[in-house]
Design goal:
Blueprint lengths: L8 E8 L5 H11 L6 E7 L9 H6 L4 E3 L7 H23 L1
Parallel strand pairs: 1-2, 2-3
């Protein structure tokens, strides 16, 4: 993952998995056609034990992938990771309001 300056609009996309299907194809097509000079488009890997489809392409473009362990594998860590992601989102919202 690379450090980058915020470009304005930030998107955190949930829904990519390791299984190549309709959602993954739709999301990567959206991602490929974005103006990356204006939009930061990051992803949540909801199957943190595995890589998601197109992971190399996403990381090579400078986007981040936040990994969340499966709730079946480790429920406490799963919910802690989601809580951390939500805290980051809330911090950005509060910062932007001020």
């Amino acid at each position: 993952m690379t450090n980058r300056e915020s470009r304005g609009l930030r998107v955190l996309q949930v829904g990519m998995t390791r299984n190549l299907g309709g959602i993954e194809t739709y999301l990567i097509e959206q991602f490929r056609h974005l103006d990356k000079t204006k939009i930061d488009y990051d992803f949540v890997n909801i199957t943190g034990e595995y890589s998601i489809c197109y992971e190399d392409e996403i990381l090579a473009s400078g986007s981040k992938i936040f990994k969340v362990v499966s709730r079946h594998k480790n429920p406490l860590l799963h919910y802690w990771q989601w809580f951390t992601i939500l805290l980051i989102i809330m911090a950005h919202i509060i910062f932007l309001k001020n």
